[in-house]
Amino acid sequence: MRIRIKTPSRLHITLIDLNGEIGRLDGGIGLALEKPNIEITASDSDNPERIPEPFNKYAERLKKAFGKEISLEILSTYRNHVGLGSGTQSALAVAEAFKKLYGLDLSLYELASLVGRGGTSGIGIHAFKYGGFILDGGHSKKVKKDFLPSSASKAPPPPLLARYDFPDWDVVVVIPELTGSYGAGEVNLFQKYCPISINEVRMLSHIILMKVLPSIVEKDLDSFAEGISRIQRIGFKRVEIEQYGNLIWDVMGSVSGCAVGMSSTGPTVYAITDSNANSVKRDLISAFREKNVECESLVTKANNSGFEEEWLER
Question: 93-131: buried (b, 16+ CB within 10 Å) or exposed (e) per residue?
Fold first, then answer.
């Protein structure tokens, strides 16, 4: 048997609560994107060829759990550690293929736990399954007591609180030739700056509930853009941006009239607009180049349906 899996990517807009006073940690909002993608074909195999990183480590986890192997062909991928969630999408592509090939009755949460994803943010796992604009509920302090990124957390995946189809706005994605925080560097970022002030957590929650979410339902880009702009200067998102000195601030300030932010710990910058997407993209690229930073770029849309699958042989 052989199956093809194609995933979305995702923007992680912000974590919500890195204070924990109310008894929960994390939580977040984010958006699934049509491009870039992880796309693989997988087949059941007793003697698979060598699988490239990072896909091999997920196949090994599944082999350890179930005693079965798969062969993989990687059709498309994108860079790690740039803020677009390639790790989670790669992991879940492998896990979903494995599940289908061997007829396993496993939930999204079980799959994510098997491949070690969702320990802090649930945006990537819910983007994979459902697409759209996502709000996840974070973790009870009964299951997660420390401030840690997903890569270092063994907590179970967080619940999906809300999911909305996103309007047909253009999403400009600019990926500079820099590497975001990961591994020990990302852990240190959490340890150094958490807990975040409870006042900032409350302010951020207010903006999400009464500005960002209503603007999506009402398809009000101006209000959405105002909310996204305010989020960049609050709590842990501000910390993530300030890792890069003034670079990301200056780049984001080079465009107006759209929702501009940095995804996850960066360095990817996004701009969401209903007009002039190519002009916005040029301005962002020029702003990076003025700082002697080259970049990749694309214009895409939200993915409102999650991953695709196609049986090639049964």
Answer: bbbbbbbbbeebebebbebbbbbbbbbbbbbbbbbbbbb
